[in-house]
């Protein structure tokens, strides 16, 4: 029997169960390797926007069962609502045993405050033109499906897989600017409110980075997604780690990031900011 890793906090977001792009089998494999004290599902877990009765495979259902199983065995599970599962916001602050539905979450982690929310509040297209955002969601799902077919052909030809959406994000100025603005806004608000960590999802861009301005500093973290990046954030023994699941080898790879930086590094960051 596989020995499970004990972890204090695990953060997952943008799983999009119920869509063609979701890597449910890989996620189930990841969840089977851990025993977290707290599991935070940071929005867009079940994609209610694109839900169709004709498509909800057993592998997707197994992920839900695994989460329920974790909760029944003592894991505190917080389901933070996102834009694709916003229908659940009518049940905000409801709890059944160890399972809680919330809009946002503040955690105390070793005398430091973590502010956790999905992040769609920063997205104007979601707030003001919901039909445009939903259309974009369907388009994204179609793009991912097409990408998978192309990659199957590339692999048979012995060539490296290719990501359509990552290429678009990297080359479209508006997409690059949106991601940058998103991170900046989240960090600025976190510093203003005295949070040591701000943890988001929504933009499908896994990241861990220190943000500094003239009034303070915070760590911005994004758990990524389980459509393209297959990533999770883990907190244990005062350290954050970003885990990536390798689709080709079915192995979990560790990108280690030490969140406890030295005073000298903080000073350098402050000096860099002050010269801009």
Mean pLDDT: 80
What oligomerization state is this entry in? single chain
Give the uncertain stretches in residue-range form.
125-137, 260-276
Q: What is the string of SSEs from the N terminus onward? A: EHEHEEEEEHHHHEEEEEEH
Query: Helix amount, in percent?
Result: 25-40%
For the biggest sheet, the summary is: 8 strands, mixed
Structural class of the helices, strands and pairings?
alpha/beta
Rg, Cα atoms, Å: 19 Å
Strand order of the largest sheet: 4-5-3-2-1-11-12-13
Quantity of strands, as a count: 13
Put simply, the count of helices is: 7
- Range of strand content: 25-35%
The termini sit apart by: 55 Å
Q: Globular, elongated, flat, extended or rod-shaped: what is the shape?
A: globular
Can you offer a commentary on this structure?
The chain is an alpha/beta fold and 276 residues long. 34% of the residues lie in helices and 28% in strands. It contains seven helices and 13 strands. The protein has helices spanning 24-31, 58-72, 124-128, 130-156, 164-171, 173-192, 263-274; strands spanning 5-12, 34-42, 76-80, 94-96, 99-102, 105-109, 112-116, 197-200, 207-213, 216-222, 231-236, 239-246, 251-257. The strands form two sheets. The protein has an eight-stranded mixed sheet. A five-stranded mixed sheet has the order 6-7-8-10-9. Helix 1 runs parallel beside helix 2 and helix 5 (164-171) packs across helix 6. The longest helix has 27 residues, at 130-156. The N and C termini lie far apart (55 Å).
């Amino acid at each position: 029997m596989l020995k499970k890793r004990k972890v204090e906090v695990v953060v997952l977001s943008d799983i999009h169960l119920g869509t063609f792009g979701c890597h449910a089998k890989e996620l189930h494999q990841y969840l089977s390797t851990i025993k977290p004290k707290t599991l935070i599902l940071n929005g867009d877990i079940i994609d209610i926007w694109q839900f169709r009765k004709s498509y909800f495979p057993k592998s997707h259902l197994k992920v839900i069962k695994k989460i329920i199983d974790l909760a029944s065995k003592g894991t505190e599970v917080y389901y933070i609502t996102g834009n694709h599962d916003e229908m659940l916001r009518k049940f905000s602050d409801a709890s059944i045993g160890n399972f809680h539905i919330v809009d946002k979450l503040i955690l105390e982690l070793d005398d430091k405050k973590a502010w956790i929310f999905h992040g769609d509040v920063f997205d104007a297209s979601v707030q003001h033109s919901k039909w445009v955002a939903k259309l974009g969601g369907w388009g994204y799902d179609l793009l991912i499906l097409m990408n998978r077919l192309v990659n199957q052909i590339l692999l048979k030809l012995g060539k490296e897989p290719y990501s359509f959406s990552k290429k678009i994000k990297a080359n479209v100025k508006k997409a690059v600017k949106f991601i940058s603005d998103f991170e900046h806004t989240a960090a600025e608000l976190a510093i203003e409110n005295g949070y040591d960590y701000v943890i988001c999802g929504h933009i499908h861009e896994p990241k861990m980075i220190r943000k500094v301005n003239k009034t303070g500093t915070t760590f911005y973290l994004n758990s990524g997604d389980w459509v393209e990046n297959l990533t999770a954030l883990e907190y244990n023994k005062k350290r954050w780690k970003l885990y990536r699941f390798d689709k080709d080898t079915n192995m979990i790879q560790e990108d280690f990031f030490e969140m406890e930086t030295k005073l000298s590094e903080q000073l350098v960051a402050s000096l860099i900011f002050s010269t801009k």
